[in-house]
Amino acid sequence: MDQDSLFAPPGEAWQQVSHKLVDLRRLVLVVTLTPLTAALAVGLGILLGGWGVAAAIAAGLAGLAFGLWLIPRNWRAWGYAERLDDLLVTRGVMYRQLTVVPYGRMQYVDVASGPLERRYGLATVQLHTASPATDAKIPGLPTAEAARLRDRLSELGEAQAAGL
Asked: What is each CA distance from 31 to 28, 71, 75, 76, in whole angstroms?
């Protein structure tokens, strides 16, 4: 068996999340690293002088470079596929994961969109089942797709549960 087919079974119509998620996560990275780097530079500058400031700025730039490299890889790893009886969600770069959620096991579907997500026109769909270990979350969906997926999954979940 092919290693990739373990996490992305062939023959499925895989959907990828919006590329706007990359821009959003880059913004969050810069907004988070800037004050942390500045605070570290001040602290190390007081303790070590100019070398401390240089070390803090170098660490901040290294973190930024790593984050900018990792974010698109992480985005490419997210995907989902709607099948007849279940939803497949795949994610992860280093630790890949495939979650299969049968429609009949879904209890409810959450759609969330924070202020930055709304600015980019994105939302996150999260499926909840009886098992707390099930983490079927799909971030970075355009709001129209998130609403469509929420309605479809709710409809399929009710139909499958009624058939039990």
From this structure: 5, 15, 19, 23
